[in-house]
Amino acid sequence: MLDGLLGRESLAGELERPVRLLEAMRYAVLGGGKRLRPFLLIETARLFGAEGMGAVRAGAAFEMVHGYSLVHDDLPAMDDDDLRRGRPTVHRAYDQATAILVGDALLTLAFDVMADPATDVSADVRAGLVLRLARASGLGGMVGGQVLDLAAEGRWTPEGRPLALSAERIQRLQAMKTGALIAASVEAGALIGRAGPAEMAALSTYGTLIGRAFQIADDLLDVEASTETAGKATGKDAARGKATLVGLHGVDAMRTRLAAIVDEAVDRLGPFGDRAAVLVEAARFIAFRDR
Amino acid sequence: MLDGLLGRESLAGELERPVRLLEAMRYAVLGGGKRLRPFLLIETARLFGAEGMGAVRAGAAFEMVHGYSLVHDDLPAMDDDDLRRGRPTVHRAYDQATAILVGDALLTLAFDVMADPATDVSADVRAGLVLRLARASGLGGMVGGQVLDLAAEGRWTPEGRPLALSAERIQRLQAMKTGALIAASVEAGALIGRAGPAEMAALSTYGTLIGRAFQIADDLLDVEASTETAGKATGKDAARGKATLVGLHGVDAMRTRLAAIVDEAVDRLGPFGDRAAVLVEAARFIAFRDR
User: Fold this and answer.
1) Residues in chain B where the model's pLDDT stays below 50
2) Nearest C-alpha neighbor of A212 from the set A238, A165, A177
3) Residue ranges per domain, chain A?
4) Residue range A27-49: average pLDDT?
5) Do B115 and A128 touch (CB under 8 A)?
């Protein structure tokens, strides 16, 4: 689907799609990745028997937003990363100007896809999808979380000293930077499935919890990948003096907490019975993955 | 309206709005500018008696997209400008990371505003606004135009030699980079006003023509105005060896063509009679402004 949405042919209202830009956009989002957000969206919609292309298109839109955020976060002025998914980052494979514009174009195309009648027959659902995606990824969600993250790393403090954040502030930062988009992908699936209010509430909580689990698992991986590697004493977070819950509470405590969060997330799927088996597995995969 | 949309309080689905980001976003869009796109949108909606806050909100969304594009275009990796509207650009007043994120957040918030029920009671209209805004500003519109523009300046040619573009290619580049968003702001006003197909077609052509006039006027100003009058650096096109229609055909020929385009645009407003007096004036202002 991502591949099809990034074709040469221009849509109504577009004039032409410049080849260089299109190629770099494809490089950014077609090079692997877990495709977690589309997966969650499609499986949530499937709970309600919504099996059409709408969920696949909406999932692709979430993947575009996720992909754009990685391209911009990798820029030299941000996290300055040269590698992503084992390949040069977009600004290394192309250049910085291209990377900035690739991000801008992916973000814009995501909203295009959501608002397109091909995604859902109901304009109410389409506008709802746009609104949820925007709230989860904008200044009060993902982008705001990246600002809090740079601030926490000491970007704007004298001598660049990292901030000593409370557990509450770390959780808020992570909920914004990664949790909100994961939760929104579940909610978007529920929206496409015409979930009722109680179902939406249960799935929304499930989404928030697995978003939290995702980040704790990420922080644990950062610590443990480094202990396995004999040459390096610490992972990236510790090297940057970055405040994480794992750093604050320790590995064992967070392993226990992670298991509890997964149990709670799975509980919310109770009303859906066996139909939710894949989402149950997804919660476990997110928490206990090894990459 | 822009001011109100950039308030401290977070909306449903947002977690919090980081102060630093919000301040920089306000710096980016509240520091003057002609507010051309909101003006066109509001006046077009008014043709149909649509006087509510919907057009004002949608106009603010267009201004956010315009503002984000300036913030990103000014970055060192893009056009590398230090001044905008007589003040330091966002990456000079703050830093590059903040400027990248300000742009991302403004773009996202624009789609949020369009999809919000407060903008229009009809979800069809809201989804239509999102779609038009996205098509005009994405890879087949504004962002794509910026890619073509950097390419034309020789960004990706050996020795950085500017491309010798045909008049047709220059016009396409300009239609994408600036024309599409101006035309879309007129179309958005027509959408909010529930314009019929014939009215939409006439206004869409009007929008395309004044978009073209805007760019020719800009190129003429770059040749003729001083930095002081224009509020930004002038003479830049020639210095960069940039291909413009003014460079290709000369000032006199383009002055004549500009007047003809304005006449044609005004013609399209004929069916609206005296109600369109403000849009007639707008076409003249755009073509014959001095900054």
Assistant:
1) none
2) A177
3) 2-288
4) 95
5) yes
